Amino acid sequence: MTNRIVQVLLLFVAVSCVASKSFSKSDEFTHQQIMKLLSLPQKSEMMPNVFKVKIGDKAFLGAFTWSNCNSSAPLKLNSLSISPDPVKLSGDLTVAVNGTADVNVVQGLSAKLVIKKKIAGIEIEIPCESNIGSCTYNDVCSMIPSTPPADCPAPLPTYKIPCSCPVPKGNYVLPKTTFTIPPIPVPGWLASGDYSIGVKAYDKAGNNLACYNFKLTLA
Known about the structure:
alpha+beta; 2 helices; 15% helix; disordered N terminus
């Protein structure tokens, strides 16, 4: 309980400093304190993954949840499941996804991510550092190598799921598939805890192509 109170106080001070924007030399100090807070392991407040319910565009899957946040966006998720839940940063990860693209995805696609971590019951946005965190990516397609379908990792070619731009419009289904994630160095803030992730994608003209919200727990 004492540690939780200390975390709340530190978080309040850090967020207050950021919100006031009345400092200059303390910018780096405040940023460092926020990142230290984000790096503290947190006990999950979410329920274990013991049930699955879908209501409209929202799906509830134990601790992991997802939703489409713009019903008129042409890139939609129809279903999505992951296990284990909570998610582990290395080892086996089983994924099943069904998505629909009502438009062709071409060059010029931009994406904005907003990632928040719950600290002492309060969600705090994770800054963008080295293209990791709450970042904006101005040309997503340029980040994906334009390779022949034969070079796509298995089992994507089997299910005719493209792994490079352009992506033709259509329905794409990946049945339950297990991937092995090797141990890799991760930022300190990517420690255990509850996270919320917002994803928005836009075309060159600024039209919203996709909008997703995710909540998950890292173990």
